[in-house]
Amino acid sequence: MDAILFYVCATVAVASALVVIGQRSPVYSAFALIVTLCSLSVIFALLGSPFIAALQVIVYAGAIMVLFLFVLMLLNVKKEEDAPGRGGRAMRGFATALVAILVLEAGAVLLRLTPQAAEPFDASTRTMAGILFSAHFLYVFEATSILILAALVGAVVLAKKEL
Question: CB neighbours (10 Å) of residue 47?
Fold first, then answer.
């Protein structure tokens, strides 16, 4: 039963990730990203890491996606329109080639792998906090928060109406 649920969630994750990059509306794309993140959370839970699964839902599907949707709504981004000289035929050929490569790679992976029980790794709260907030990762964590803050300030400046 776990293997079936794993393959279903993996298929949903890949399909919704393709919707994220193929969708013309940024809001629908953000909602598809939430579906991708939630299905990844189920996969982490099946692999024996409930803490990472909870973080995936709370931090990424919750907080970060709310921030993304806030910026999208603030900027009032419209649906992307087709430009006349965009080369729709070339883009369809390129997309078809990428899908063919993806299918070939997925087939190669499925032929090489046999379903095995995943060995759970230690992902307790204490262990993960020790890793994330060690001196090395603390600077990376702080730099990421400054980057997100700068992006939010930039979005507010872009969306600000001229007085």
Answer: 18
